[in-house]
């Protein structure tokens, strides 16, 4: 697999400061040495419990947060050390769709201003070309031209997310980080937005990093999945293989909790994890999952498991596999 997006040893820590000199005395280890690649036109799902660091990773990849360490490349252009002069062209290539379409749209701006603003900054479109392009874009996301004179509060959640998607596409990016793009929407609207994103992927030849805690949505939408736990990636695999044959105990627990319309399913086989996700300020030693793992062994608290290849494109970090 040739990576279009290459993330290598990415680390993000947030310092905790205090005292008279406001010195750093601890740090939140939000993203802890993660590496993965996304091929051109691929959709990679990044899943895990709330607080596992998936959104922080997405923001570091886009350059919205400065990483503490590691490298992010788009088509061999380094994102983390980019020359300020090239930042504009980078922003044009990478965009984000936010979880909450209401708070991500400026309530004081009309939809017309919201959609045209990036064009004014990044492109030298004439006024008539701008209008034509926006009209075409609205058509693609299933909205009418009449929305242009209205304000974000006048729309339903689904319509607002369509506007958020249109805004992300205005600069015709190649890579989009979709951060929980449907989790704030009603279930009936979720399918519409996912289908829209799938169609736009073909139309614009997009590559997606799809961040979600909803495994049913990820199964429907992603080509490959990376599972995160406490700032680390513990398993990656093609979507169907991951759902058919998960190897990491955490992935198995996550998948066993997915509600399925199968009345004959034996619920006693569900894996209920005990305890809360530990604090990322003081994460456990060795395998970070050892405090909750039903298969924990002596070695687990002492040594971090290394990445083991299970199958083609299927990797997991667990001592049970070595
Ligand atoms: Fe569980 Fe040990 Fe595997 Fe970690 S390394 S997932 S604690 S068995």
Q: Return the string of H and E elements.
A: EEEHEEHEHHHEHEHEEHHEE
Which of globular, elongated, flat, extended, rod-shaped describes the shape? globular
Strand order of the largest sheet: 6-7-8-3-9-10-12-11
The tally of beta strands, per DSSP, is: 12
Radius of gyration, taken over Cα atoms and rounded to an integer in Å? 21 Å
Strand content: 25-35%
Question: What keyword list fits this structure?
Answer:
four-stranded antiparallel beta sheet, 322 residues, 2 domains, Rossmann fold, binds iron/sulfur cluster, 12 strands, 26% strand, globular, single chain, alpha/beta, 29% helix, eight-stranded mixed beta sheet
Care to describe what's here?
The protein has 322 residues and is an alpha/beta fold. It has two domains: 164 residues, P-loop containing nucleotide triphosphate hydrolases (Rossmann fold, 3-Layer(aba) Sandwich); 87 residues, no CATH class. The chain has nine helices and twelve strands. The strands form two sheets. It has an eight-stranded mixed beta sheet, sandwiched between helices. The chain has a four-stranded antiparallel beta sheet with strand order 2-1-4-5. Strand 7, helix 6 and strand 8 form a beta-alpha-beta unit. It is globular, with a radius of gyration of 21 Å. The mean pLDDT is 90. The site of iron/sulfur cluster has 14 residues, from loops.
What would a concise description of this structure say?
With 322 residues, the chain is α/β, with parallel strands linked by helices. It has 9 helices and 12 strands. Helix 5 (157-169) runs parallel beside helix 6 (187-204).
